[in-house]
Amino acid sequence: MTTSRTPRLPDVDQPHPDHDRGLEFDLNTLVSRRSLGLFLGAGGAAAALAACAPAGNTGSTSSATSTATSAASSAAGSSAAASATDAATATPTLTRAIAECGVEIPQETAGPYPGDGSNGPNVLEASGVVRRDITASFGSASAKAEGVPLTFTLTLLDNANGCAPMAGAAVYAWHCDRDGKYSMYDSSLKNENYLRGVQEADANGQVTFTSIFPAAYSGRWPHIHFEVFESMNNATAAGQVLAVSQIALPQAACDDVYATPGYERSITNMSRTSLKSDNVFGDDGGIYQLATMTGSAAAGYTAGLNVTI
């Protein structure tokens, strides 16, 4: 699925107006984002795993059935082990990622502050935008965003190719600072470009950014925006986008961070919204966009999310 670079719905305090994305989108959404979650039990999860094996797998039907049955019988134990592993590392493992194959990341608005050239400023063509640490501005800008440290990793998976890691793809990520402001757009930050950057996916399809924990601003659940491109060349040329989505941050981590100095406004804003009432995550509570997270406000947080495209 590709997304053309056209003006996107604004990321505002009020709910987005309903709009028709077509029958195919509706059917895919109905099946992949709701029905699949209800349908997949232990056996269903095993079947999904078998169905998402790499295309080169030429094993017999009986072999596949045996594998699925075996996987189903140990699903509860392996699921608990996988959850424990993920909780410890906070970076989604490829095993877990393949198990989630078939559920594509929901397409979301890029909001009014993308900085990708779709509505004015374009950071993607600026020298220095390809970087892991996005805490500070680059180029002729010099400001640095203050806040609780946050490192987040996205694992990119190709749904049409057995959820193989999308090595060589690129991600542009951006988010607000601890005051809820976006660089390049806020009147006080027009000449700054912090909390924006591009990374190329490694052999495991992973990109990692070092940043700070974003604020909760009025009308929105705490989140991080990202766009996925087929290649680094496409990203830095602001080319065709494969996916546009957002990472939802878990409430426990948000509550912990927002109790620290500098995030005072976020406490009030968090009390006025929820994942269910959020105008982006509200349709399914952000179930496929909620990051796995470990850490603390004192030591910093690490987050991870599988992104199937």
Quick overview of this protein structure:
With 309 residues, the protein is an alpha+beta fold. The protein is built from 8 helices and 9 strands. The relative contact order is 0.18.
Q: Name the shape in a single word.
A: globular
Measured as a percent range, the helix fraction is: 25-40%
The helix/strand order is HHHHHEEEEEEHEHHEE
> Largest beta sheet, briefly?
5 strands, mixed
Mean pLDDT: 77
Question: What is the domain total for the residues?
Answer: 2
- Could you tell me how far the N terminus lies from the C terminus, measured between alpha carbons in angstroms? 7 Å
Taken as a percent bin, the fraction of beta residues is: 15-25%
- Write the CATH architecture name of the largest domain: Sandwich
Rg, please? 19 Å
- How many helical elements? 8
How many beta strands in the DSSP annotation? 9
Keywords: Dioxygenase, Oxidoreductase
Biased composition (Basic and acidic residues): 8-20
GO molecular function: dioxygenase activity
Region (Disordered): 1-20
